[in-house]
């Protein structure tokens, strides 16, 4: 199993399918621990939210590694796993004072200045999230918005957003995002192993993947629990899967008339499989293949 599963799950459960990892009060059971987690959240906003526009800050390997050590991390997941996660998250919201919400992608906001709603969040009690971040922020407001009042900014951010989000709505959004070629990441934002969000992104924007790809901090974006495999008898070498792969793992040879997947590069997102009109691609557990068993 992956490193996160080894640390934060039992033998037969993947960390993001372990129900207890969705319960804030379970991971932080005492008032002292909850207060410490709350202060850590405040610190996260204070230390980073105001400096996203400073490339030399967010690109510091030392800073990123420190954040990874403190509980920032994510893992690529498949569409089916997204649905499983959403169902577990919905059960968790019934037990705690929390809800499933759709939010804008910070990565796209930083890079393109566009607020695109393609992330689903959960895991933090509503009362705490309102107190810490979503109700108010320190200082005058987000610097990139010229010090705008947070109340006005929040209303602007939520235009067209669904808060709270129903399970059915979330499932439909997942299908829509995948058709656009967005991969799925399940993440913990500094409170590992608390499962807090499914981020739907792509290579151009995904901050967590860039931290791994550029600086080698793999904890930010672990490979998924599956790898893609092609059935050569069913494959027509149409190239649809090549267009979907953002990890450079698929090669189509027009000379040989064959398409191959490099399992050592495959992250197991499943986008290639879903793009194949001939059902020539399947996903197999990473741990069942000796060459990929320890490649996370």
Report on this model:
This protein is α+β, with helices and mostly antiparallel strands and 296 residues long. It has helices at residues 3-8, 24-27, 31-49, 55-58, 61-69, 79-95, 106-112, 126-134, 150-157, 167-179, 207-215, 240-244, 271-275, and strands spanning 72-77, 101-104, 117-121, 183-189, 197-201, 226-230, 250-253, 258-261, 281-285. Strands 1-4-5-3-2 form a 5-stranded antiparallel beta sheet. The protein is globular, with a radius of gyration of 20 Å.
- The share of residues in extended strands comes to 15-25%
In total, the number of strands is 9
Assembly classification: single chain
Give the N-terminus to C-terminus distance in angstroms.
Answer: 9 Å
Helix content: 25-40%
Order of helices and strands: HHHHHEHEHEHHHEEHEHEEHE
Average predicted confidence as pLDDT:
82
Number of domains: 2
Structural class, by secondary structure, is alpha+beta
Low-confidence stretches: 133-148
Strand order of the largest sheet: 1-4-5-3-2
What is the radius of gyration computed over CA atoms, rounded to a whole number of angstroms? Answer: 20 Å
Number of helical runs?
Answer: 13
Outline of the structure:
This protein has 296 residues and is α+β, with helices and mostly antiparallel strands.
List its traits.
5-stranded antiparallel β-sheet, 15% strand, 296 residues, 2 domains, globular, single chain, alpha+beta, two-stranded antiparallel ribbon, 13 helices, Alpha-Beta Plaits
């Amino acid at each position: 199993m992956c490193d996160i599963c080894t640390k934060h799950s039992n033998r037969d459960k993947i960390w993001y399918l372990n129900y207890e990892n969705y319960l804030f009060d379970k991971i932080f059971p005492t008032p002292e621990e909850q207060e410490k987690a709350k202060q850590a959240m405040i610190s996260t906003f204070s230390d980073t939210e105001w400096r996203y526009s400073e490339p030399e800050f967010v690109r510091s390997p030392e800073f990123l590694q420190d954040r990874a050590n403190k509980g920032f991390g994510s893992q690529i997941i498949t569409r089916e796993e997204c649905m499983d996660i959403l169902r577990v998250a919905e059960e968790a919201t019934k037990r705690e004072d929390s809800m499933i919400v759709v939010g804008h992608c910070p990565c796209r906001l930083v890079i393109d200045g566009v607020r695109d709603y393609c992330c689903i969040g959960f895991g933090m009690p509503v009362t705490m999230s309102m107190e810490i971040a979503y109700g108010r922020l320190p200082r005058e407001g987000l610097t990139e918005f010229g010090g705008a009042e947070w109340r006005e900014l929040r209303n602007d951010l939520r235009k067209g957003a669904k808060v709270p989000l129903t399970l059915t709505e979330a499932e439909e959004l997942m299908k829509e995002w995948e058709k656009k070629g967005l991969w799925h990441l399940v993440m913990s934002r500094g409170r590992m192993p608390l499962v807090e969000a499914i981020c739907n992104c792509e290579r151009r924007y995904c901050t967590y993947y860039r931290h791994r790809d550029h600086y080698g901090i793999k904890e930010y974006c672990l490979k998924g629990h599956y790898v893609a495999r092609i059935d050569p008898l069913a494959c027509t070498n149409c190239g649809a899967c090549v267009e979907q792969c953002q990890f450079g793992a698929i090669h189509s040879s027009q000379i040989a008339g064959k398409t191959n997947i490099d399992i050592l590069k495959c992250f197991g997102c499943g986008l290639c499989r879903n793009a194949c009109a001939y059902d020539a691609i399947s996903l197999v557990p990473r741990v069942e293949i000796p060459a990929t068993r320890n490649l996370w």
